[in-house]
Amino acid sequence: MKEKKKAPIKKNKKIEDLSLNTVSTEDHFLTTNQGLRINDNQNSLKAGVRGPTLLEDFILREKITHFDHERIPERIVHARGAGAHGVFQLYKPLKAYTKAKFLNDTTIQTPVFVRFSTVAGSRGSTDLARDVRGFAVKFYTEEGNFDLVGNNIPVFFIQDAIKFPDLIHAVKPEPHNEIPQAASAHDTFWDFISLMPESMHMIMWVMSDRAIPRSFRMMEGFGIHTFRLINEQGKSVFVKFHFKPLLGVHSVAWDEAQKISGKNSDFHRQDLFDAIESGIFPEWEFGIQIIPEEDEHKFDFDLLDPTKIVPEELVPVTPIGKLTLNRNPDNFFAETEQIAFHPGHLVSGIDFTNDPLLQGRLFSYTDTQLSRLGSPNFHEIPINRPIAPSHNNQRDAKMRQTINKGRVAYDPNSLSFGCPFQAKIKEGGFASYTEKIDGRKIRERSPSFLDHFSQATLFYKSQSEPEQNHIINALSFELGKVTVESIKIRTLGLLNQVDKTLAEKVAKALGLKVPTKPETLMNHSFGADADPKKFQSQKGKKTIEKSEALSMANTLKHSIKTRRIAIITTDGCDEKSIEAMKKALTEGDAVVKIVAPTLGKIKGKNGTFIDVDESFLTFSSVLFDALYFPSGAKAVKTLLDHMEPLNALDEAYRHCKPIAFDEDALELWNASYSSKDLPKKTAPKELAAIGLILNGSPKEFIKAIAKHRFWTREKKPV
Q1: Where in the chain is the domain with CATH 1.20.1370.20?
Q2: Does 599 score more than 50 pLDDT?
Q3: What confidence category does residue 570 fall into, taking pLDDT thresholds of 50, 70 and 90?
Q4: Which listed residue (43, 78, 268, 496) is catalytic?
Q5: CA neighbours closer than 13 Å in the CB half-sphere of residue 566
Q6: Which residues, at least 6 apart from 379, have a Cβ–Cβ distance to it below 8 Å?
Q7: Residue 121's closest CA among 166, 80, 67?
């Protein structure tokens, strides 16, 4: 009997009515959780367009409260992290700018704990996702804890905190299938971005190599927002905070990042842990950009706009001290996982500005710690406990550890003789900066925030040619994963306003054309009643055409500290050449591993036995910074019979890494596919210029490793 065909299931827009727990968002006005229709879901309520965000903004508080409590117990963002203890040492007192004691006493070392992290992925995701990296520093000062909660990118996607839940919901795995994890290459993220032109500067950074660092130790840190420093006289200056790594700023290739994720998803965490355990401590210079209060409006961008940088050509970064990480946590959960950062943890001499993203963070961080750590007593967890004594009349709540004596739990009081007393300003009492505020209560963006493209263009134009190619490839890859064509076209319209050539190359890779006119996005970027003419995105005047500080091509390239070098060999190798190379590399604090077909020992041609660190089964070129093939005719012949050495050679060549050969190991180079990319009569000097050392010179190899990568070996985008 022929089986009866089942009728196709028809989608019914009313199907949601069958369940009280299912809600449709189709054909409805946006409302609060109480059913109140929302007129503007794009801007928090402020005192004037450049004023502070108001506590009475119940829409902002409801939205962020819901967002902060969506996940337990891991962090909603920055869930996957690694951390370490260390110290901060000041170079020179900053009395002219701030009264903060730890920025005025060069005789003390301020203890710190630093937590690095990815943003979008869960705790179980990979270290090598294309993503922003968190760079959060807790200074345990004598006046209390100061938290500088930043990233490795100096700007952010959005200008107002009310959009943060939307941004994270868009970049997180899509809710219907929980895919993809720790990745922005999907429809919902680019749908959101294509409707938010203010994100374009951040997109340039995230699509650049900054989003796939070689190591936590080789990336910059930024406070993102503009803060204030206040001196003893009550005079204020604006300040931007920077951390610059003494190893330079370096990245990996995108193909390499994907392979590392498969080989060792803990690559960054292990790298940080191993460097500290070996005694080669990660170091950064802590620097500041100072902007006098009278210069607040002299730039062609707004200092309060978190999607903008202050170019170093306009305001140089002044190094003020060194941050050194010198001790790994004793227990990951107790320290790295339970540490609680908050941009509202300040000391006297440092204060906020009215940056609307910062203002929202001041509410959000305490709220999310209450959800994640379960109690307002999270400050009593050892890793969060200040070294400055804590005295107040707060009591009780879950997990209280302090045992308070007496019956007074209020202020003012006489039963405890008024204790604890309020501190006068001259006694270190914190007093907010007395900024004049005069404005209407309004949900509106300042017109000075409307230039969404100038700094995106500045960043792109400041990159070297290989770095620009990487941005083109990254955008082509990300948008190539998007399934909805209209989203791609909208994004191309935005990219065209950043740089026409960039947009054209990405469009070509996608098989599309750049739209002649970008889509009008005002209803998405501002309130429903916003006047599109008043809030039209614009491109401002260029103060500078390029900034050298924005390109990693101009970073430090003088050190091979902690770089991982694989010496690939086997029985019959030349012990002397291996010993000479290993000695030179380890004297430069590099990490050297002997790689052979099997573990155990190999026997050199002179009868010396050498310990093997890794076999071909566990070795991968993507976990190393450079490769060396020593001499030894028998060893070279054996290696030619294995596919692993040649695969590693070709892969390292593709990833633009330094590769060195002793002269009689050149058979391996000649047998590789990569050798066919170059003319046969290429001079040794020309090869050395692209990171291929054919004479086995330790000095030349070390020089090449310090340069990190030779990106000119890459194929250019189509």
Answers
A1: 452-553
A2: yes
A3: very high
A4: 78
A5: 25
A6: 340, 385, 386, 390
A7: 80
Q: What is the pLDDT of residues 159-176, one digit of tens each?
A: 999 999 999 999 999 999
* Residue 102 and residue 154 in contact, taking contact as beta carbons nearer than 8 Å: no
Strands 659-661 and 626-629: parallel
> Binding site annotation covers 372?
yes
- Identify the CA nearest to 242 among candidates 223, 229, 256, 268: 223
CATH 2.40.180.10 residue spans of the chain: 46-384
CATH number assigned to the domain covering 452-553: 1.20.1370.20
Phi-psi region of 518 (alpha: psi -120 to 50; beta: other; left: phi over 0): beta
**pTM for this one?**
0.90
452 assigned to active site: no
pLDDT in tens, 302-312: 999 999 999 99
Question: Which residues make up the CATH 3.40.50.880 domain(s) of the chain?
Answer: 557-713
Asked if 642 is an active-site residue, the reply is: no
| CATH assignment of 46-384, among 2.40.180.10, 3.30.230.10, 2.60.120.620, 2.60.120.10 | 2.40.180.10
Is 352 annotated to bind a ligand? Reply is no
The reply to whether CATH 3.40.50.880 applies to domain 557-713 is yes
Could you say which of 41, 43, 104, 151 is catalytic? 151
Residue 440 labelled as part of a binding site: no
